[in-house]
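Hello support,

Our group uses your service weekly, and this is the first time we've seen a run hang past the timeout. The protein is VOC domain-containing protein. I'm not sure whether the cause is the sequence or the server load. Input pasted verbatim:
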Amino acid sequence: MTQEDVQNGSAAAKTVTFSAVKPQLFVEAPKANDAVLFYKAAFGAEEVSRAVHPKRKAEQEIPLVLVAELKLGSSSILVSDLVDDSVKTLGSGFAMCLETEDVKAAVAKAVSAGAVSEGELAEGEGEGLVGKLKDPYGFVWTVCSPTKKSVDVEA
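Update from on-call engineer: The timeout came from a worker crash unrelated to the input. Re-ran successfully.
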């Protein structure tokens, strides 16, 4: 297929599907390993895989984490060391939302692991109990009860 075909839309007929969306959290180097340990302690994350930066020397005390994949519930997140300015942060804000049946216990566990609770637990509009946390790496997490199903709206 030529570049002209792509520009004229010929490539648009092919269907592309995605198997997952994995948010990637960048933390100040060399704190990704600490962040992985925090997410395991605070949220019960399970480490699925890890790649260490290939340019780090073996004798260096803490290898930089190129990327670690963590499983949180049925989702995955990626955690990496930020080694240069090539990654731009989201200017409008970004928060991760965790659903659980026991919001109070989840917030307490995260706080005991080093997160800071932001405000009191509150009843969210149609969401049940909601708590907000800021982790030691500056990311905001919302912990909430599972969303209650509402009546389907006809399209």
